[in-house]
Specification:
It is found in: Cell membrane. It is a lipid-anchor; GPI-anchor. Keywords: Glycoprotein, GPI-anchor, Lipoprotein, Membrane, Signal. Helices cover about 10% and strands about 35% of the residues. The chain contains four helices and 28 strands. It is elongated, with a radius of gyration of 27 Å. It is mainly beta.
Length: about 450
């Protein structure tokens, strides 16, 4: 029987590992199962040697956005295509256009890379939803800012929907690696409405593809960690040691922001995108969850996000947390909250982000390098308990990446004298103080 039990346990562990690998391989996110970046090409008209096409990029990810310096989209032409002209974006390299004498194309590269334009470009270079430096909000934060588009005139290609072949080998940087793109698929032509809504126009040809994100493609280590504390236990559960890796510690962390190496930040930024404050966890971001108070019908949590990177400001950041009591979230201060409901009536996952011009910018490491909120949650008296880590989150994500949690067996625990019925934190503190005083008086006699 013991051998059978061991075999069952081994089979279970192998199954879990297999499912984990598969889930990462297909970049499936249980908190955002439909999250993806969709790229659509709409051929608007034919030209003597090609076509004019509008490319639309839509970020359907609920809580993962594209930060500065923005997206880069690349592909491989199927034939000998060239880009005659572009509006709303530009190719990063012109390539070898020496065979052209009079009319020089915008790009002759077989594998062009395209980036968004900066906000201050002239009007004649602009296009709808362009010129935002490639920065795109997440769909959950602001759908209107989750779209980017540009237009290009393609030459040396087919001139009908029977002769045009979509590009291949698409890739998307957002702004670094992490995205895997599917092959382009020809779909029914898109239909659009005129401004007055009384006329529709149809594209000559449309193809589309999706790009999905996997954290494993970015780094083998997490990018954030979680620490825990509570009013009923003086011990703080820190982030796990080396939660985000400890390789070459002396080369990428400093103890003092006034360190002489910080004087030339531009030079440092070219060598390494991060310059971290030296900590045991070595993470650029730490999320601290503190159980602040326990009332008769409510309990209170304080969440603090701290930036340990001296060279990085986080704009439009997002925090995703999973906790079974979010279905009774009564109040949130300083942050915006949106539920992420994926299991019918169950609401155990929520997205938090900063209020515009108030807390949507997480400054670089230093005195201003943190943002915080307080949550007031109503109790379910039939299920509520502070025992066995119930008051702490199951998972936390920062900017779409899962944070490293401490081991459950070192979570802050209740004192042995805790009552089964919940009481206020002040009453519990008073009781503990009186108990300690009685012990002291007894020992004196």
């Amino acid at each position: 029987m013991e051998i059978i039990s061991k075999c069952i346990r081994s089979a279970f562990l192998v199954s879990v590992m297999f499912l984990t690998i598969v889930s990462h391989a297909v970049a499936y996110d249980s908190f955002d199962p439909n999250g993806r970046i969709n790229i659509k090409w709409d051929v608007l008209s034919w030209t003597p040697d090609g076509y004019v096409v509008t490319v639309t990029i839509i970020n359907y990810q609920m809580y993962r956005h594209i930060t500065s310096p923005g997206w880069t989209l690349g592909w491989t032409w199927a034939k000998k295509e060239v880009i005659w002209s572009m509006v709303g974006a530009q190719a990063t390299a012109q390539g070898d256009c020496s065979k052209f004498k009079a009319n020089i194309p915008h790009s002759c590269k077989k594998t062009p890379s395209v980036v968004d334009l900066l906000p201050g470009v002239p009007v004649n270079q602009r296009f709808s939803d362009c010129c935002k430096s490639g920065v795109m909000a997440s769909w959950g934060q602001d759908p209107s800012a989750a779209v980017s588009a540009f237009q290009l005139s393609v030459g040396h290609s087919g001139t009908s929907n029977k002769t045009v072949t979509p590009p291949k080998n698409f890739y998307l940087l957002g702004p670094g690696p992490g995205y895997t793109c599917s092959a382009a698929t020809i779909v029914p032509p898109s239909v659009s409405f005129s401004p007055d809504g009384r006329r529709t126009t149809q594209a000559m040809m449309t193809w589309t593809l999706d790009c999905t994100y996997s954290q494993l493609l970015v780094s083998e280590n997490p990018t954030c960690c979680v620490s825990l504390s509570s009013f009923y236990n003086p011990m703080i559960t820190p982030c796990p040691s080396c939660a985000c890796g400890c390789k070459d510690v002396n080369n990428n962390c400093i103890n003092d922001s006034k360190d002489s190496r910080m004087l030339n930040q531009k030079a440092l930024a070219k060598e390494d995108a991060s310059m971290l404050q030296c900590t045991n966890h070595r993470c650029p971001i730490r999320v601290h969850w503190h159980v602040k108070a326990n009332y008769r019908a409510y309990w209170r949590v304080k969440i603090t996000i701290t930036n340990f990177n001296y060279l990085m400001n986080y704009t439009q950041w997002t925090l995703v947390a999973q906790h079974p009591n979010f279905n009774k979230l009564a109040n949130v201060s300083s942050f915006v909250y949106k539920p992420l409901i994926h299991y019918g009536s169950i609401n155990d996952t929520g997205m938090f982000y900063g209020i515009k011009n108030h807390s949507d910018l997480l400054m670089e490491a230093g005195p201003e390098g943190s943002v915080q909120t307080e949550l007031l949650l109503g109790k379910d008296m039939k299920a509520f308990t502070l025992e066995q880590g119930w008051a702490f989150p199951f998972k936390l994500y920062f900017n779409g990446d899962e944070c490293k949690m401490p081991l459950p067996d070192i979570y802050p625990t209740l004192p042995n004298s805790a009552y089964a019925n919940p009481i206020s934190s002040s009453t519990l503190a008073t009781t503990l103080l009186l108990s300690a005083l009685l012990v002291f008086l007894c020992s004196c006699h």
